[in-house]
Amino acid sequence: MASINQDELLTRFAPRLHFDALERWRPCLADAYTAHSTFLDAAGEALDGSPPAEPAMLANLEELKSRLDPLSDGPDPDSLRRSNELLATFGEEQDLSTAGTCYGRLVHGGPGAIFLQYWLFYPDNPCVLPPGRHDGDWELVQLRLRESGAEWEATHATLAGHGKPVTRTFRSTDGGPDVFVAIDSHASYFVAGAHPMLPLSDVCTPASPAATPAVAPIPVAPDKVDWAHWHGRWGIDRGPGTWLALRLGLRRTPSFMRRLNKVGAGESPPSPGRQGASWSRPRAFQARGTQRRGTNVSIQRLAHFIGRLTWPKREPEVTVRAVAPNSYEIETSSAGHFARRVTRVSVSFMETRPDGSRRALAMQSVPAGRVAGPFEIAHDGPLTWRAAGYNRLRQRGEPIAGPGQ
């Protein structure tokens, strides 16, 4: 009989994460986020004593309409500005050369089977082009292991992209699956490239080798009085679907209401323990992912075929110039014609620190064919950047590496 050592198994089978070339976030612990956040009650009023938010979360565990505000200033009509502020607040200690830290959990799945869950938290779901951004982001990678003699062997991997699972067979006795993390949405995929969504496709074009995140146990109390089981939402968003769900007292925003969020913003998520089958019934969650796989693959193939007719092929020229200390302007050209024409360019700025680690600084999205700025980008180490062009259909071209990349 194979022994069960939760920490050892979670570390051994941790996923190998591939991040997009322009991605500014790595998964992290939620401690700094809850420590900095204000707890908003059902009326949207700040609760006395927060931040930190965790005591209020535990004292108001069942309050469906409560939310966290990580910046303590409510929603910002400029979504890019808010994302950059979140990055400055919570991203300073992150190292883009690593895969960060995720939460791990082991669930018994019946005789001879267990499930490993990796919950990945990001302080922001930026989305370089609105709509879609929201504060806070929880993603999930799940593995099923079966007993094989004195060993445990992985048999299936389930990825929860936008809450909709896809399951594939995955065989391994040592090492986790390769997971491709889409830019900004952080949705997980089994392969790199574009994954059509509406209104903005998910894309992951890695520029660095994959890395395995550190794994910390998710803090679950025996009586379920913990932030993993708090009923509220992990941030502020401006989506009308979320507003309507809160007014109706719904635990989660139904799918038809989430479509309304695409008008203004995405949906800040509930806690892991309040995400239904993905937490409480991992076997059923895997089965749902298996059922979806066939439909998902056929739809993806059709969408890829159609998308290639308009996908931007030509890269715009991008120049970043210093106009003063820590102040830069961006000059871009348009590229392509008709539906393939690049109309907007997003530039992700990073710095290299003395110890060799890399930190994300900001993202700026500017119209193509113009000079934009100046933008204040404070940095101590050498500044680097990567860029990509988007057409009017919000399809993204290949990443463009700046000098020194």
What would your notes on this structure say?
The chain has helices at residues 6-12, 31-36, 54-59, 79-90, 240-248, 255-261, 277-280, 282-307, and strands at residues 16-19, 38-40, 67-69, 101-108, 113-125, 134-148, 151-161, 164-172, 178-181, 188-189, 193-195, 202-204, 214-217, 318-324, 327-332, 344-352, 358-367, 371-376, 383-390, 400-401. The chain is an alpha+beta fold and 405 residues long. The chain has two domains: 6-295, no CATH class; 318-401, Immunoglobulin-like, CATH 2.60.40. The strands form six sheets. A six-stranded mixed sheet has the order 8-7-6-5-4-13. Strands 17-16-19-20 form a four-stranded antiparallel sheet. The radius of gyration is 21 Å and the shape is globular.
Main pleated-sheet profile: 6 strands, mixed
Quaternary organisation: single chain
* Low-pLDDT sequence parts: none
What does the overall shape look like?
Answer: globular
Query: How many discrete structural domains?
Result: 2
Name some characteristics of this structure.
single chain; 405 residues; alpha+beta; Immunoglobulin-like; 2 domains; 6-stranded mixed sheet; 4-stranded antiparallel sheet; 8 helices; 20 strands; globular
What is this structure's SSE topology?
Layout: H1 6-12, E1 16-19, H2 31-36, E2 38-40, H3 54-59, E3 67-69, H4 79-90, E4 101-108, E5 113-125, E6 134-148, E7 151-161, E8 164-172, E9 178-181, E10 188-189, E11 193-195, E12 202-204, E13 214-217, H5 240-248, H6 255-261, H7 277-280, H8 282-307, E14 318-324, E15 327-332, E16 344-352, E17 358-367, E18 371-376, E19 383-390, E20 400-401
Parallel strand pairs: 1-9, 4-13
Antiparallel strand pairs: 2-3, 4-5, 5-6, 6-7, 7-8, 9-10, 11-12, 14-15, 15-18, 16-17, 16-19, 19-20
